[in-house]
Amino acid sequence: MIGAGLILLGVGALDLARKRLSGAKLGIVLVVLGAALLPLAAWAGAAAWWFAAVAVAAGWAAVTSTREPTRWGLWPAALLAVVVAVAVALIGVRDGQGPLERIWPIDSPLGVVSLDLAIALAGALVFLVESGNVIVRASLRCGVVAAEAANELKGGRIIGPLERVLVFALTLTGAFTLLAAVLAAKGIVRFPEISRDHDGGDRAEYFLVGSLVSWVVALGAAFLIWWGTAV
Length: 231
Description:
Blueprint: H1 2-18, H2 24-43, H3 47-63, H4 75-90, H5 115-139, H6 144-152, H7 156-172, H8 176-195, H9 202-230
């Protein structure tokens, strides 16, 4: 689980940075991010996974964009899902979690939270904020009409991350009734905008596809945490 957490943390943090940076500045951010993750990985007894996290983050940045869809579509997201799944399959919550485990406070209101679980949760949450938007954007078809729909429903850029974090948290805590209410509320709030759609149905398509992909990303992250603790 520590490997998946570090990978998601690296990818998510880099996406947050490159939302406003590009070129040489982005390269500097990648170096700084790698330097910041190295002590965490070393103190957690997972230095080998640091190399994987930096490599995956660099590869992700090379084939995706935080501003517009790329020709790679959803393939980078699918490959990333395979990588983190393999990381969880190889190692779940470890018995020994490095020097940092000795000072890590494992008690919490929700029960015992090990160092591996804490890093995985942090990585998933950081990933859901901006990297989730990258995946949703990649799932939407290009074109002028789609761009107009994106502009008219641009509140989704803010609602989306909040929604994914809520879906992630409610799924992990088993609050499925509240989860259903949140998802239904989004449809009700967006209904007036969708009802004004033209014959092409582009605004409705944008909303439905974007919402479904966003929910799948959040549910996938929650499943990853559940699976990691069960391994």
